[in-house]
Structures are given as structure tokens and as C-alpha cells.
């Protein structure tokens, strides 16, 4: 009888704790790495990392520029890297990937989604072998003139559980990756992944650097046909002048019908200002340590 009583009491308190929200997670995006923020307890660094918590799922998006700084902020924000459902790396650049060194020490078996890029062990660009010279002697020919169909590139992340992505990929119901390739001269042929989350109030789009252009990414996510509630992350406008920053801000608001904007990382201070003026109260601050609630 006493044992049964203990079970009843335990169950009652468990229900009570759950009822007041203990053990539950908010639907939110928490910024783990960026170069601006309000808290002196966190390290600021160039780069980007964010933790997405949505419908009980936990997704790490990018890992920042420096493994030690990433580890410091993760600890300061009480983020348990062992409790991740998956990881997304937006693109190959070191300011989004270096924290993988720390992550893989803590959670070596976690599934990591990356672009299908040579940096992550993807294929060596076929263009390297498109101009063969048959008249050369065999010992001067690549692979003696018999080039394999695919040549996997070396990668520092070969031991990781990588899933390389080259098309729209559903991670779980209502959460998917969209892929684009930069066409700019500086970052040409850099594939980039963005995370799209369906919410009751529209899509939330999390972007790393937006090298392909944020408007190109929005188009690939089905917008404006599928409205977007918020865009969060880097817009790669750090070198934009006021004219281009104002043009983009107006376009995001009027053409793309973006409800909320939460820019960070490589967006640039000129573009921060332009977006804040255009979006007003719908401009969401996204410095390191801040959390952006999702509907």
C-alpha cells in the first residue's frame, strides 16, 4: 500500500512539473555565436551558430569560427550538445565549421547534414578532367587516362556521420533543407544549405551566410507563394552600400512579404540599419545569446 502511495505521489509531482513547463522546451532559435551581443558573459566572434528548438526537436545550425569560443558559449548558455537530433552545416567556410572539433568530441555519432561539397568529402570537381590530351604518354595522364566517375575529396570530417545534400531534403515533417549555389565571383560554386521550418504563421528560414543571395534562397523555399514568418541569420551584405541595403530591405518587406527579420553575422551594419528602418517593430534583435521565439 505504501509503495502504491509513493507511485501516486511521484506521478502527481511529475504531472505538476510538466504542467508548469519544467522539462519542456520553447519553440525558439538561440544564437550561440556571432560578433555582436548584449551579454559580457559570452564571447563574441566572427561566425555563426544557432540552436533551433521546435516541437521537441533540437537542431544545431552551424558551429562558429573558433572551437574554443563555441565551446565556451555553449557551456555558458547551458546547451547540452549530447541532446541533439541532428546538425546542419550551411556551407564549407571556417567561420561556420570550426566548432565541429568540439561538437564531435562531445557527440561523435550525431548526424550532420552538409552540402555535397568537396570540403566535406564530396566529389572532386569533374571540370578538372574535362580537357584530356590523348596524345600524352600514359605516365603523364591523370589516372593513366582512365579517370574514375567520382573521386571523393579528402576532408577533415571523414570520421563524422555526414549526410551530403544536393537537393531539397526533408529532415522531419515540416522541417527541410533547401540548397543553392553562389554565383558571385568571390564565392562562385559554393553550395549552401538553409533550414526551412513550417509554422502555423508561415515559414521560418534560417540562413548561414546567404552567399547565393537571400532573394534566390527565398525563391527556392517557395516564397512568396508560401509566406515566410521570419528570416534569421546572415545576409552577406557586409560590403553593401546604403543604396543596395535600402533596396534589399524594401524588397524583403514589399516583394517577399517577410513579416519579421532577425539579421546577424555577415549582414553588415549598414544593412542592419536599413532593415531596422524598414521593418520597425518587426525587426528582431539576434545578437549572441539572444533567443527568438518561433510560433
UniProtKB/TrEMBL annotation:
<dbReference type="InterPro" id="IPR036866">
    <property type="entry name" value="RibonucZ/Hydroxyglut_hydro"/>
</dbReference>
<protein>
    <submittedName>
        <fullName>MBL fold metallo-hydrolase</fullName>
    </submittedName>
</protein>
<keyword id="KW-0472">Membrane</keyword>
<dbReference type="InterPro" id="IPR001279">
    <property type="entry name" value="Metallo-B-lactamas"/>
</dbReference>
<keyword id="KW-1133">Transmembrane helix</keyword>
<keyword id="KW-0812">Transmembrane</keyword>
<dbReference type="InterPro" id="IPR052926">
    <property type="entry name" value="Metallo-beta-lactamase_dom"/>
</dbReference>
<feature type="domain" description="Metallo-beta-lactamase">
    <location>
        <begin position="46"/>
        <end position="265"/>
    </location>
</feature>
<dbReference type="InterPro" id="IPR041712">
    <property type="entry name" value="DHPS-like_MBL-fold"/>
</dbReference>
<feature type="transmembrane region" description="Helical">
    <location>
        <begin position="7"/>
        <end position="23"/>
    </location>
</feature>
<dbReference type="Pfam" id="PF00753">
    <property type="entry name" value="Lactamase_B"/>
</dbReference>
Amino acid at each position: 500500500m505504501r509503495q502504491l502511495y509513493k507511485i501516486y505521489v511521484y506521478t502527481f509531482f511529475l504531472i505538476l512539473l510538466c504542467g508548469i513547463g519544467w522539462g519542456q522546451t520553447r519553440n525558439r532559435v538561440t544564437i550561440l555565436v556571432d560578433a555582436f551581443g548584449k551579454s559580457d558573459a559570452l564571447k563574441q566572434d566572427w561566425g555563426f551558430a544557432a540552436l533551433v528548438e521546435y516541437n521537441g526537436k533540437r537542431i544545431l545550425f552551424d558551429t562558429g569560427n573558433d572551437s574554443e569560443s563555441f565551446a565556451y558559449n555553449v557551456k555558458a548558455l547551458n546547451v547540452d550538445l549530447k541532446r541533439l537530433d541532428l546538425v546542419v552545416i550551411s556551407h564549407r567556410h571556417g567561420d561556420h565549421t570550426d566548432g565541429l572539433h568540439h561538437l564531435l568530441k562531445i557527440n561523435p555519432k550525431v548526424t550532420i547534414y552538409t552540402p555535397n561539397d568537396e570540403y566535406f568529402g564530396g566529389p572532386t570537381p569533374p571540370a578538372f578532367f574535362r580537357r584530356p590530351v590523348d596524345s600524352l604518354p600514359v605516365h603523364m595522364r591523370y589516372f593513366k587516362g582512365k579517370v574514375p566517375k567520382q573521386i571523393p575529396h579528402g576532408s577533415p570530417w571523414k570520421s563524422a556521420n555526414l549526410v551530403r545534400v544536393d537537393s531539397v531534403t526533408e529532415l522531419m515533417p515540416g522541417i527541410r533543407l533547401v540548397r543553392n549555389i553562389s554565383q558571385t565571383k568571390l564565392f562562385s560554386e559554393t553550395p549552401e544549405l538553409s533550414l526551412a521550418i513550417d509554422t502555423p504563421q508561415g515559414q521560418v528560414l534560417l540562413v548561414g551566410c546567404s552567399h547565393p543571395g537571400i532573394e534566390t534562397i527565398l525563391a527556392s523555399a517557395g516564397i512568396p507563394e508560401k509566406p515566410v514568418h521570419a528570416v534569421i541569420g546572415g545576409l552577406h551584405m557586409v560590403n553593401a552600400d546604403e543604396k543596395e541595403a535600402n533596396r534589399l530591405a524594401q524588397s524583403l518587406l514589399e516583394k517577399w512579404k517577410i513579416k519579421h527579420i532577425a539579421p546577424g553575422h555577415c549582414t553588415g551594419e549598414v544593412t542592419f540599419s536599413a532593415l531596422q528602418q524598414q521593418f520597425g517593430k518587426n525587426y528582431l534583435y539576434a545578437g549572441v545569446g539572444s533567443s527568438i521565439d518561433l510560433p
